[in-house]
C-alpha cells in the first residue's frame, strides 16, 4: 500500500460532529473499497477545545495541523460561548489555524446540482449545471491593512460627531502573484479560464492587482484564458449569466461578497464546501484546510437534521486538491448527485417538490450506497 495521507479531523461544535461522522464513514469506504490509505487523527477546536483546555485551539493541535497533509473542520461556536472573552471565543480557533498555516487562497465552488436547481434564487435555466470556482485572497487586503482604527477627528469642526473610521486596502505584488498562481493552476484542471475582478478604475491596489495577475498570466500561464472585470460589473454578471465564468480570482473584500452571492445561486447552505490553501509543503502538497461554508447551526444541533453534504463535498475537495485523487473526488460527487436525483432530502432540502426525507446519518448511508 502507498504512503498514507495524513488527515487531521476537527469536528468542532454544534452540527460539526454530526456532519463529520458521515465524512468518517465516507473515508472508511474509500479505504476499504478504493485502496486509499489515510492516517486519520481527531482533535478538538472551538468551544469543544475551550471546554477541555480553556483555549479554542491548543498549541499541540496547532502543531498537528501544521504537520498534516490536510485538515478537515466541521464548525465552531454556539450560544454557550457567546459570553466568553474575545480572545478565547471559538471562532478564534479557526482564525488561528488560517493565520498560522498562512492559508491565502480561499476556494468556494458554486456548483448547481440539477436536482436542486429550483432552490436557486435564479431561474432554473440560468443555473442548471452551473460549476464555477471563486478564489478569494484570504490573508491580506482591507481586513488587515494598516493604518486602521476609529479616531477622533478634532481638527475638523465640520465633522458632526467628531470621529473618523479608517481601514487601508494594501496589497503587495507578491501577495497578488501567489493567489493568481493558485487560480491559474486550478483553471488548468477545470475550464482553463480565469476572470480577475477588482476596481482598477478607482483603486490603486486594484491597478496593481490587474497588472500583477496579467504578469503571472503572460509569464507563467499564457495558455489559460484571462479576462479582467470591475467587481461591480462582476457582481452583476454573476447573477445575470453565471455560466460565463470558470474560475474567478479576487481580493479579500470583494471575494467575501461575491462568494456569498454565488452561494445563493446554488441554493442551500447545507450544500456548500470550501477549501483554504497555502504554500506547498516539503512533500509538494499545499497546506490545506477544508470546511463546509455553513456554521455550527445551534438551532438544529443534536437532532439528526443537519445536511452532511457540504462537509462530504469538502472532503471531495481534499481528495482532489491535497491528495491528487481526482477520480475518487468525482466518484464521490457523482454519488451525491445520484442521491439528490433520487429525491433523497435532509429537511433543509425539502422544498416545494418534497422528496424522501432522511436524517443526517441516513443521508450519509445513502451516499455510501450510491
Ligand atoms: P456561524 O456564526 O457559525 O456562521 P450561524 O448560526 O450564523 O453560525 P449557520 O450555522 O451557518 O449560521 O446556519 C444558519 C442556519 O442555516 C442554521 O441556523 C440552520 O438552520 C441552517 N443550516 C446551516 N447549515 C446547515 C446544514 N448543514 N444542514 C441544515 N441546515 C443548515
Ligand atoms: Mg454565520
Can you walk through the features of this model?
The protein has 370 residues and is α/β, with parallel strands linked by helices. The chain contains twelve helices and 14 strands. The protein has helices at residues 16-34, 47-53, 59-67, 90-100, 124-127, 173-188, 204-220, 231-240, 252-266, 309-321, 326-341, 360-369; strands at residues 5-12, 38-42, 70-75, 105-111, 131-137, 145-152, 163-168, 193-198, 225-230, 247-250, 273-280, 286-292, 344-345, 356-357. Adenosine-5'-triphosphate (ATP) binds next to loops. Belongs to the isocitrate and isopropylmalate dehydrogenases family. LeuB type 1 subfamily. Substrate binds at residues 98, 108, 136, 232. Mg(2+) binds at residues 232, 256, 260. GO terms for molecular function: 3-isopropylmalate dehydrogenase activity.
Oligomer: single chain
Helix content: 25-40%
With strands numbered from the N-terminus, the spatial order across the biggest sheet is 2-1-3-12-11-4-5-10-8-9
- Rg calc: 21 Å
Q: What's the order of the H and E elements? A: EHEHHEHEHEEEHEHEHEHEEHHEEH
The biggest beta sheet, please? 10 strands, mixed
Give the end-to-end Cα distance, rounded to a whole number of Å.
26 Å
- Please state roughly what percent of the residues sit in beta strands, choosing from under 5%, 5-15%, 15-25%, 25-35%, 35-45% or over 45%: 15-25%
Q: Give the mean pLDDT.
A: 95
In terms of structural class, how would the helical and strand content be classed? alpha/beta
Instruction: Catalogue the unreliable spans.
Output: none
- Dominant shape: globular
Task: Determine the number of helices (DSSP H or I, runs of at least 4 residues).
Answer: 12
Bound molecules: adenosine-5'-triphosphate, magnesium ion
Based on DSSP secondary structure assignment, what is the total number of beta strands?
14
